[in-house]
Amino acid sequence: HTVVQSRLTTLPEQMLRIDFTEDVAAVVEKIKKASIRLGDVAHANYGAQMSSRKKGGFGKEHVLRDSKESGTCRKTISGRELYRYRAHWAGRYVEWALAPEMYGPRSEWFFERPKLMIRDITGTHRIEAMLDRSGLYCDHTILCALRFADMPVTEKLDVQKLELSKSYSLEVLQGVVASRLVSAFFYWTLTGEGVRTGGGFHTYPTTVRALPVPSPDLIRSAERDGKLKEIEQLVTRLAGSSASGETAPFGVEQRKRQFAANDAHLDQIFYKLYGLTEAEIALVEAATN
User: What local confidence, expressed as pLDDT, does residue 2 receive?
Assistant: First the structure.
């Protein structure tokens, strides 16, 4: 491997990344030039920190319930129950009447409005993210990203960013964040852990906001070509086949194959949208296999 020494100053924590070759650097620059940041169209932050705001007070388990004991109980999940395109709700609730006593409860709209949910520790090679429209609550092992257009009007928002966010459906953002292209970019440029250890990488609000999404020009081009609609349809199918494949008594393997085919098709759309060559695609896939 050959790594240009000056690259060290541009890499996270100035780590020696023997896989960050000049060819990889060229792919990263191509993605950057054709992208804006997720943070330009969405607000991102951790889920609720459910332990006590008082030092030495209660832990998270104090506010969790195994059944809906009251009208203020809310369905909740944690990072270990979140996967690409789906969540496995384990039947737990959070007693939201105790929110004022929590260290960082967040506002109710933060959970109840449509959002992307992203696990705080990725899979070994891929970002774990799903689109939620059911109002799931979550703890701080999940990050939520809401389009500015979906946030309450009472929040002080940048008008330009609010208008820009309307051009990006949540389905498109889900497909982008869950794509190989973005996972490769994340690994190459946003992680300080230069060696994979089997446990994945940490995601933070700053790194989620820095994830690339296609520029407005690319979005308009995809809309003219009918690809934007195709992306949204594929994301809907992926979410459907992932969720149904979990509980269906028959056809599980068929659903897995269908999921893999739709997933690969979606990746090809993003490769073409960004103008990646076969050699550049091979680099992305090598980084996410």
Answer: 74
